[in-house]
Design brief:
Elements: E1 2-6, H1 18-32, E2 36-42, E3 53-66, E4 69-80, E5 83-91, H2 108-126, E6 132-136, H3 142-149, E7 160-165, E8 173-175, H4 177-182, H5 186-189, E9 203-205, H6 206-213, E10 216-219, H7 222-230, H8 238-243, E11 248-250, H9 278-291, E12 300-306, H10 313-325, E13 329-335, H11 339-351, E14 358-362, H12 366-375, E15 378-381, H13 391-397, E16 401-405, H14 408-413, E17 430-432, H15 437-453, H16 455-466, H17 473-487
Parallel strand pairs: 1-2, 1-6, 2-5, 6-7, 7-10, 10-11, 12-13, 12-15, 13-14, 15-16, 16-17
Antiparallel strand pairs: 3-4, 4-5, 8-9
Length: 488
C-alpha cells in the first residue's frame, strides 16, 4: 500500500506541538509495517534543516494557480528519520512559508490553501497515485475537496482520503475568496451541505470541507470523537459530524518509544525500567540539582505544557500553590503565546523565585523535558479539553503518575487509583471531572497523600503506567484497517 501524508507539521523538522509528533510517529509505524509512506509539507524557512538528509531539488517549475495568476514552485525531497519527505517551495513575492514561523500569520488560510492545491498539482504532474492520501487538520482540509472537485476528473480517481482532526478548536474559517484562489466554484461548494460555515455568515470552513469530502474521518482519541459530536466541544461542527457519523471514528495516538524510553534515553541521568526503578531516584536528585531546589523527602509535582487556556492555565497556577502548601515540590516547563498569560507566568516565576521547593522554566527545552519526566513523581494536566494528549503517555512511560481532568484522550488513557472500574493493575493515575480548584485538589491531594503514606501503592501506580502499551503499535494497526476499509 502507498500512503502520502499531507501535513503542516512533522517532527523533528517542523514541529509546533503534538501534531508534528503524531505525523512522525504514525508514519514510522506504517513504514515498519511495510507500507510505502511519503510526506508532503511546506518548505518553511524555519525548519530544522540539519535533521533532513540528502535534501535536493526533485521537481522544478511546478505551476500552481493562485487567483488569476500562476505561481512557480520547486519541490525538494529529503529523508527525515528514514521517511521520504517532499517540501513545497513557492517562488513568489507572497513568501508563503518564509515568515520565520509556522503559523500565526494573518493570511494563514491563503498560505495553506495554496499548499493544498500545490500538493495535488505535484502528485498529478509527477505521476503519484497513492492508495490513500492522509490529510491532517484544517491546513490540509481543502485537499479532499480539490481531489474530488477537480483532480478526480484529471485521472486521480483511484486515491482515497483519510482526514484526521487533531483539534477542532481551530477550523480554518475564512472568506469565500479562498475558493476562487484555488479554482473552486463558490456556487458548487459554498452550500450548507459542503463548505459553508455553520455559524459565520458568508464564510467557508476548511475543516468542514475535509469532513464532508473525505472517505473517512478520524479524531485522535475515541472519547474526543464522542465529545465533538455530542457536546459544545464540536465548536459548531456537531451537525456535520453527526450527518457523516458512519465515517467518523476515534483512534488513540501513540508515542514514539525510540524517543521516549527511560531504559535507553541518553538525555537523563540514569536509565531504569518498570522492574528496576532505582535509576529514577538518581534522576530525581539530578533534576533537583539542575533546577537548584531542595533535596528533601517530598514528591515532585510537575507541569510540562503550553501555557494557555485550553491547558487549564488557571488550574496550573493553583497546582503550584497547592503542592507547595501540602508537602510537595513543584516544577514547571512551559511557554505562553498569549501576551497576558506569558506576563502572568513570568510574574509567578518571580514571586516564587526564592522558594527552595519550586522552579519555573518559562520557555521550552527538549532535554529538560526528558529530565522532568524522568525525575518527577506526578505530572498535572488540568486541561479544559484535550483531543488526545501525549504528555500523560510520556509521563506514564517514565513512571511519573499523571493527575488529569476527565476529558478527551486523558480519559481514554488515565484510570483513577481509587474510583476507576478497571482492575487495579490497570489503574495508573488520579482523575478529576469538575473544572474547578476543588476538583483539582481532590485528585492532587490523593496523589500527594498516597506518595507520603503508602509508597508501595504509589510505586504500583508507577509500574502500571510503565507497563501499558502506549506505542504506535495499536494505532498503526487501526489506521491500516481504516485504509483498507476505504480503499477496497
Amino acid at each position: 500500500m502507498f500512503v502520502v501524508m499531507v501535513s503542516p507539521e512533522c517532527a523533528p523538522v517542523a514541529k509546533v506541538g503534538g501534531l508534528g509528533d503524531v505525523v512522525h510517529g504514525l508514519s514510522r509505524e506504517l513504514a515498519i509495517r511495510g507500507v510505502t509512506v511519503e510526506l508532503i509539507l511546506p518548505m518553511y524557512d524555519c525548519m530544522k534543516y540539519d535533521r533532513i538528509f540528502d535534501l535536493q531539488k526533485s521537481y522544478s517549475d511546478l505551476r500552481v494557480p493562485f487567483h488569476d495568476e500562476w505561481i512557480h514552485c520547486d519541490i525538494y525531497s529529503g529523508v527525515v528519520d528514514e521517511l521520504k519527505c517532499f517540501f513545497v517551495k513557492p517562488n513568489s513575492t507572497e513568501r508563503f512559508f518564509e515568515r520565520g514561523r509556522f503559523y500565526g500569520e494573518s493570511d494563514d488560510a491563503e498560505r495553506f490553501a495554496f499548499f493544498s492545491r500545490a500538493v495535488l498539482e505535484f502528485m498529478l504532474k509527477s505521476g503519484k497515485h497513492p492508495d490513500v492520501i492522509h490529510c491532517h487538520d484544517w491546513q490540509a482540509g481543502l485537499v479532499p475537496v480539490l481531489l474530488y472537485e477537480i483532480y478526480e476528473r484529471q485521472g486521480m480517481d483511484k486515491s482515497r482520503v483519510c482526514y484526521t482532526l487533531h483539534n477542532v478548536g481551530h477550523q480554518g474559517v475564512t472568506g469565500e475568496h479562498i475558493l476562487r484562489q484555488v479554482g473552486l466554484d463558490p456556487v458548487a461548494v459554498m452550500t450548507p451541505q459542503k463548505l459553508l460555515d455553520p455559524t459565520h455568515a458568508n464564510a467557508i470552513n476548511l475543516m468542514k470541507g475535509g469532513i464532508v469530502y473525505a472517505n473517512f474521518v478520524t479524531t485522535v482519541s475515541p472519547r474526543y470523537s464522542e465529545e465533538i459530536r455530542h457536546t459544545e466541544l464540536g465548536e459548531g461542527l456537531q451537525d456535520t459530524l453527526n450527518l457523516h457519523a458512519d465515517k467518523v471514528g476515534g483512534v488513540l495516538n501513540g508515542i514514539d518509544y525510540n524517543v521516549w524510553n527511560p531504559e535507553t534515553d541518553t538525555q537523563i541521568s540514569a536509565n531504569y525500567s518498570s522492574t528496576a526503578l532505582s535509576g529514577k531516584v538518581g534522576d530525581k536528585k539530578a533534576l533537583r540539582q539542575r533546577l537548584m531546589i531542595n533535596d528533601v523527602f517530598k514528591p515532585i509535582v510537575a507541569v510540562v505544557s503550553r501555557l494557555d487556556r485550553q491547558k487549564g492555565a488557571d488550574l496550573i497556577r493553583h497546582a503550584a500553590f497547592y503542592s507547595l502548601a501540602n508537602h510537595a515540590q513543584f516544577v514547571l516547563l512551559g511557554s505562553a503565546a498569549e501576551e497576558e498569560l506569558n506576563a502572568a507566568f513570568w510574574g509567578l516565576k518571580h514571586y516564587l523565585n526564592d522558594n527552595p521547593d519550586c522552579h519555573f522554566e518559562i520557555g521550552y527545552d527538549e532535554e529538560l523535558s526528558h529530565q522532568i519526566y524522568a525525575g518527577a513523581d506526578m505530572l498535572v494536566i488540568p486541561s479544559v479539553y484535550e483531543p488526545c494528549g501525549l504528555t500523560q503517555m510520556i509521563a506514564m512511560r517514565y513512571g511519573t503518575v499523571p493527575v488529569v481532568r476527565n476529558t478527551g484522550g486523558l480519559a481514554d488513557t488515565v484510570f483513577d487509583a481509587n474510583y476507576s472500574d478497571v482492575p487495579f493493575e490497570q489503574r495508573n493515575g488520579f482523575v478529576f471531572s469538575e473544572l474547578t480548584t476543588e476538583g483539582l485538589e481532590s485528585a492532587l491531594s490523593r496523589g500527594i497523600g498516597l506518595w507520603h503514606r503508602y509508597p508501595e501503592y504509589f510505586r504500583q501506580l508507577r509500574t502500571n503506567g510503565m507497563n501499558q502499551d502506549l506505542s504506535w503499535n495499536n494505532p498503526g494497526r487501526d489506521y491500516l484497517n481504516i485504509y483498507e476499509h476505504i480503499w477496497t
